[in-house]
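$ ./design --mode recover --in tokens.txt
reading tokens...
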């Protein structure tokens, strides 16, 4: 057998070639687009042939990549099936891997784990917090293949629930309200209008525009004057919440 390239580079290439997008591949693998690009570049240098044609904001497959993709995809499926068979012989403990958005995982799942363990003492929960558990569009492309590839049994997602080949169950509806620390909320109302306090913005939710965001709230309460306040943006809802609790916005 000839020497094979690194398996991780091949796996990143397979997903990027199948989705025809470094961004979609990064989402499926829970990595950054830069990581996909780095591994693909390393594979191209290893093989001495270009696999993608880089365009502005998109990529297309070269003839070499198109020729290799079907068998490579089939090969990874064979590997996945083999690993699944091995897992059947693993420890008999009931291990459940759960993936959720960081804020939901920390504030909702973790406080309830003790009740789960009381009811199912033989179970073991492995909790993963990932920002890739957010689907701002109905046609996000999420499906069972991503769960299998990541080894996830249950994925708690923030989105529309319009998924193929999975069994979605709505846990709760999302209600959005402006929040402030109790010290601010209990103070005179003018304290909340201090220009030095920024409006905290969770960009995880902002991706659902126009459904979410400060501007929509300004319009509802007819307070366009508040739009002049500066924004402090977070890519993680947990950080935004902790900043609000600290009274910093």
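writing sequence...
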């Amino acid at each position: 057998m000839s020497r094979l390239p690194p398996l991780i580079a091949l796996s990143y290439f397979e997903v990027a070639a199948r989705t025809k997008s470094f961004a979609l591949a990064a989402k499926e693998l829970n990595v950054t687009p830069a990581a996909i690009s780095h591994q693909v570049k390393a594979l191209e240098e290893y093989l001495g042939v270009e696999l993608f044609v880089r365009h502005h904001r998109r990529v297309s497959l070269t003839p070499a990549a198109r020729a290799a993709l079907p068998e490579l995809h089939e090969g990874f499926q064979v590997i996945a099936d083999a690993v699944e068979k091995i897992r059947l012989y693993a420890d008999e403990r009931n291990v459940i891997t759960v993936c959720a958005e960081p804020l939901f995982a920390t504030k909702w799942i973790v406080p309830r784990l003790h009740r789960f363990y009381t009811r199912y003492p033989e179970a073991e929960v492995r909790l993963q917090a990932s920002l890739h558990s957010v689907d701002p569009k109905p046609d996000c492309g999420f499906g069972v293949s991503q769960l299998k590839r990541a080894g996830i049994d249950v994925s708690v997602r923030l989105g529309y629930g319009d998924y193929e080949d999975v069994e979605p169950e709505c846990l709760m509806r999302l209600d959005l309200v402006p929040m402030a620390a109790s010290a601010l909320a209990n103070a005179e109302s003018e304290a909340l209008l201090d220009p030095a306090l920024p409006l905290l913005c969770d960009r995880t939710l902002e991706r659902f525009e126009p459904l979410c965001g400060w501007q929509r709230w300004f319009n509802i309460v007819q307070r366009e004057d508040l739009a002049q306040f500066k924004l402090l943006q977070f890519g993680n809802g947990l950080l935004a919440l902790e900043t609000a609790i600290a009274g910093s916005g």
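exit 0
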